[in-house]
Amino acid sequence: MMLMDHRSSPVCLDLSVGLSPSPPPKMSAEMADDKAKTTTLEANFTQLSEENRRLRETIAYLYANHQVASPSPDATGSSPPSPPTTTASRKRSRDDSIEPPPPSNSGDAISNGKAESPLHSDGFEGSCRRIKVSRVCTRIDPSDTTLTVKDGYHWRKYGQKVTRDNPSPRAYFRCAFAPSCPVKKKRSAEDSSVLVATYEGEHNHACPTRAGELHDHGGAARGGPVPCSISINSGGPTITLDLTKNRVLEGGAEAATDIKRMCRQEIASAEFRAALVEQMASSLTRDSKFTDALAAAILRQLPDY
DNA sequence: CGTGTTTGACCTGCGC
DNA sequence: GCGCAGGTCAAACACG
Predict the structure, then answer these.
(1) In this predicted model, what pLDDT tens digit does every residue of A178-221 receive, in sequence order?
(2) Which pLDDT does position A296 carry in this prediction?
(3) Residue ranges under compositional bias (Low complexity) (predicted)?
């Protein structure tokens, strides 16, 4: 169940049919019990909707700030704009079968966030499309030569290629956490301070270390400087945290204690709960069996329908 | 020894 | 059809 406004929801589950306010005509004891459960569920629904609304506002705020900070590809510190070459339009085969890439894109231009932004006017229709490609721009420490996007997943590198007009080699990764996971990631550093990761597909498993990222997200909430990037896809902006500068990882046992304490605080926070709820809801609503069963259960509460 | 990375070869699609 | 360039494969290698 995606607990948010239709127009902003990446999942199109219409439950309005089953939530008709008109009460059933007959009220047996069993039905009264069911009604109580329904009332409870509706109360939870309202509460979770509110939490989701707040979370979405937060994301929108972060996204707006990101746009201000990097209004154009040049402003992000990416490589100077290269003239459109045949290379830009050449790569159209496999990726296009999934989702057409933005036009006039030479390689992994960060400007793609514009074309893939979920905040454009046809948000609802666009958000109903299946998310296939997202892009993450991450500010990195120039001294960090690993050029790795620490996004919580376990990636296995399967190739590297030097591409035209880009001195930095492009690396190709597969998700190594689950062999069947279809997600692939391309990583290239077009600039010494900005790392661009392009994700293709969706993980069919949970993120093994997502909680750790949320822990750092809490650091942002506390006002500390947190390396943060925003992934733009058709379903909404996703906050991805760059853990390459995780200061607390440098202090041994003391740092480990800090991590534990911060994780506990984070798990207790509203942001964590809201994110958890949304992730769970997203996972559930992607399961057509679940949505069918849910719809059937709701309809059973309304025998007259 | 198992796991992950590197790297050259190969495959594929598109433009000319 | 050919050449180019991106993407993938797989053997060799490095590392803990």
Answers:
(1) 656 667 777 665 555 566 677 776 666 666 554 443 333 333 33
(2) 72
(3) 69-79
Strand C contact with A97 (CB < 7 A): no
Protein-proximal nucleotides of chain C (any atom < 7 Å from a CB): 4-10
Counting Cα atoms < 13 Å in the Cβ hemisphere of A117 gives: 15
Q: How far apart, in Å, are the Cα atoms of A135 and each of A30, A139, A201, A236?
A: 51, 13, 11, 12
Residue A155 pairs in a beta bridge with A175
Distance A75 CA to B13 C1' (A): 33
Provide, in whole angstroms, the distance separating residue A256's CA from nucleotide B6's C1': 33
| Amino acid, single-letter form, for residue A222 | R
Distance of alpha carbon A172 from alpha carbon A157, whole angstroms: 6
SS3 A160: strand
Where are any strands of DSSP class E within A165-269? 170-175, 184-188, 194-200, 228-232, 238-241
**Residue A15 per-residue DSSP state:** -
Cβ proximity of A209 and A155 under 8 Å: no
